[in-house]
Amino acid sequence: MKLQNIFTITLLAFFSCKGGNNDLHKKEASIIKEQSSTLVKAEEIDKNIEKFKFNTVSQNPIVDVKKESRAEIINRFKETDILINLKEKTFQAGKECTFEYFEKKVTPIKYWYSQSTVNIYKEELAKIGISLPAEFSVFISSNPNKGCEYPTSEYILIDGKIIFIYDGYLIAFENTKLISKNTFSFSTLKLPYNKKIDYKNAKYERLSTKSISGLSEFACNEEQIRYISLEKTAKINLIIVPMDCGDSPYRYYLLSVFNNKVISSLYVEGELYEPEANNNPEITNFSIDKESKLTVKTINKDFQGNSVEKKYLINDQGKIVENI
């Protein structure tokens, strides 16, 4: 075979293979385009859906009809999601309840009819860190015959939280888009933090009780308090204050100061004794993880021999709230 013919065959083979590669590239491009289209659709779906995670339960029932304990209600809802599809106009509470919704704006007095009832809900909502606004949204079924009885038939939306009553308790779910955004994060404190305070050798700063509203409640009738600074930002100041009165060897409270006012307080460390406890104290200590969440652990709670552990976070308004 002549070299020219060999060259011609080689060229044909080359372009033949190149054509095959083009087909392969087209298929790959088609697959990528399909995947991209699927991702875009998924993003569009995500944009249309507001997702809410279980947030908290009121400490006590607001209506005296309870059949389940608070702990049982927490277990019932802690893995539940609430989904609002803004495009399809559907509301889904867990697996049991889905309906096409109608959203209406109401005032507290229009919804609860009497000022005394409004005042009750205002007080109870404040206990779980929710301020009752002048107007809020209510989600109900657009078809009364296709609503849900469980967990309830009406849901309130206030400040990114879905609120409803179950078995007498106020239940709150928080929008997942706001959970991290509205949570305070430690910036100067080295995390994780897990230190026991040496109350005999601790170094304190001093502060006048008149300088911050609400500080005098922790001063044991003194004009100044001793404190350990835990974190200070432009908005929130977190300090640990020893309670220098009482029979306990030591007790420490974590205070959150916002806008020159004590917003929240939490007993985080100390030892309590009782004569009947045979010198077996109730011991409390705390830690802070890398996500800025607080864990308060109490051993021999109420001198009953049980250990109790509770988790908390601090929101962007300085409130210390239980993180269930």
What integer value in Å does the Rg equal? Answer: 29 Å
Please give the largest β-sheet.
9 strands, antiparallel
Biggest sheet, spatial arrangement of strands = 9-10-11-12-13-14-15-16-17
The overall pLDDT, averaged over residues, is: 81
List the secondary-structure elements in sequence, H or E. Answer: HEHEEEHHEEEEHEEEEEEEEE
Spans where pLDDT lies below 50 across 5 or more residues: 1-21, 31-45
What sort of overall outline do the alpha carbons produce when their principal axes are compared? elongated
What distance separates the N and C termini?
Answer: 83 Å
What count of helical segments does DSSP give?
5
Structural class: alpha+beta
Give the amount of beta strand, in percent: 35-45%
Can you describe what's shown?
The N terminus is likely disordered. The chain is elongated, with a radius of gyration of 29 Å. The strands form 2 sheets. A 9-stranded antiparallel beta sheet has the order 9-10-11-12-13-14-15-16-17, with no helix packed on it. 23% of the residues lie in helices and 37% in strands. The chain has 5 helices and 17 strands. The N and C termini lie far apart (83 Å). The chain is of the alpha+beta class. The longest helix has 46 residues.
